[in-house]
Amino acid sequence: MSTEAAPAPILIGGPAEAGRRELAERMTGIGVTEADPEEFSRLASLSSSTFCVALVDGERPSHEDLSHLADHAHLVLHRSNRDTVDDLAGVVHEGFEVHRASSAYPDCRHIDLDNRVGYTAIAEDFVDELRITTADFHNASAPHLSRLLRESPAGSRLLEVGAGRGWLREAVDTGKADYACQESSAGMARYLPEDVMTEPIRALPAKHGSYDYVVGSLVDGMAYPLGVFCLAQLLAPSGRIVLTWPSAVWSTGRRRTTRTTQFVSASGRTVRGIHSFTPGPAQTKELFRLAGLDLTEFVECPPVPPSGRPYSGDTVLADGSLPESLVSVAVGVRQ
Ligand SMILES: C[S@@+](CC[C@H](N)C(=O)[O-])C[C@H]1O[C@@H](n2cnc3c(N)ncnc32)[C@H](O)[C@@H]1O
Description:
Number of strands: 12
CATH architecture of the largest domain: 3-Layer(aba) Sandwich
Structural class: alpha/beta
Mean pLDDT: 92
Low-confidence stretches: none
CATH superfamily of the largest domain: Vaccinia Virus protein VP39
Number of helices: 11
CATH topology of the largest domain: Rossmann fold
Number of domains: 2
Strand order of the largest sheet: 6-5-7-8-12-11
Bound molecules: S-adenosylmethionine
Helix content: 25-40%
């Protein structure tokens, strides 16, 4: 079906033509526009309020194709990962509600793209020896992550998202769960095992409900409503999500913003404009609720004194004091 006008409020596109039509028909009650792949990118960029969904079918597209789709779509759904068209329509409905509740956030398509580029630019330096504030964050959160994950039973499935250069796998006891990882910045992914999933979190090809644990360390860049919604979709019933980010106490006391960050590389180059969300307990509860998760624990981790060096200058707050909490660990269970 071809359209000229900007679509509203839901646009369904992507390469899965038959499924697209079926899904659009199932959702006509709330106003859906269907678009073929060429139209889709044009229409998707016309209106920021339209919720754009791309449907993928059959053979799994390349990482590049999925990233390209996620640059236009708020949600990229793999038809084969849902049992029925009703299931697909249900996710689109829920995602639409999350999208409508996201007006306080930048457009998620920009968040993911900016961070993909930004983290690639800093990847070479992203080791604790060079990034000592990150090392302080890691030291503060590692004991809590091990406490939460070391009891994972044999046969359970754990997905680490935003794995960076693989710190968590090295430093945290993840128990007996089978481990898999995701990292969409090409610069970071080249330090990870070859089977790393490199698709953006809003386009992950993993089947709905595939994991018992979804875990992310310092994933402030994906702590926005549709990001957490997409991670929650990967969880099996009663599955657990464990995410960390710099604490709101630290981010407001040091950076004076809870929205963006910048990195200075070892060679002095500044990488600006990286999206970073550092919600406190009340905001996290709401973020999780929107994603269909119950917030079961919110740990404010105090700094842990490093051995053989002082704290990083950036760990200390602008007034010279140490923050009471350096990293937040949010734990949720799928409702
Ligand atoms: C601060 S690094 C942490 C890396 C690693 N987990 C660690 O603790 O060392 C954040 C990671 O999350 C990924 N990330 C940030 N924002 C993202 C987004 N919006 N979508 C997907 N990945 C994102 C980045 O590529 C990066 O590898």
